[in-house]
Structure formats: structure tokens, C-alpha cells
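Listing S7. Sequence submitted for prediction.
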Amino acid sequence: MTPHLAASALSWAPRGGAPILHDVSFTVPRGQVLAICGANGAGKSTLLRVIYRHLRPDSGRVTLGGDDLWALSPRAAARRVAAVLQEQPTDFALTVREMVGLGRTPHRAGFAGAGARDAEVIAASLHRMDLVRFADKPFGTLSGGER
């Protein structure tokens, strides 16, 4: 069975610097959760940045549903992977519902606005993640863990 999310022999180092990630591998079956724990500076955030395509690995690969994330176009990858960071530079005064709605952007054509299907997906996502009670709260009022 193909794991839903897999990292295989991931390595990454800043240009000219010592490796932060070296030969990291794991698999996560569909419906399972993986916790990434470690001391400050251990590479947890760097690993996440590689998984959500902010940093390209120096070696190895990340697959989602068997597809290499770096072989996908940026738009195709954005349709499948997103991140809400604990430390956002700004929340643009958006509500939680509006922040969740930003995840629909790569699914629209050009400058098309949100439609009925977007509203359905947003509502289902809020329900699935048990966020309905936060839907109309300003995103900036949430704690880091709630984000």
C-alpha cells in the first residue's frame, strides 16, 4: 500500500552551511497523524518547510499519494499542500473562515471569486477540523496552537 505522505532520504543545508536535515525518512498512512518532536534547532521547522515546498531538498524526495511533490507544477502542489504557520507576518484582519477560504485559491481559474462549491468545501473543512466555533473569529485573536 502506498503511504499517503512519505519522505525518503531527505537532506537539506543552507547554502555553504552545515546540513540541518540529513537522510530523513518516514511514511504516514492515510488517516494517520505524525508528530515531529525535538529540541530547538533540531530541524523540525526546516523539515516542514521541505514538506510544504518552501525549501527544495538537496537530496531525497517527498511524495503525497505516490506523487513526487517537486515533480508537480506549483499550482498542482498548492492544490494538495498548504500550511498555516503559527507566526504569521499578518492576518490581514481575516476571519478563520476567510483564512480557510484562502486554501481554495489554487482551485479557481484566474481572478474568479468564490462560488457555491468553495463555500461547501470551506464549511466541510471547518467541520472536519472542529473549527466551526472559530469560523467568524478574527484569525489574529487565536492562540498559536489554535492557528
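Caption to Listing S7: primary sequence and predicted C-alpha cells for the chain studied. Residues 116-128 form the longest helix (13 residues). Helices lie at 44-51, 74-78, 96-102, 116-128.
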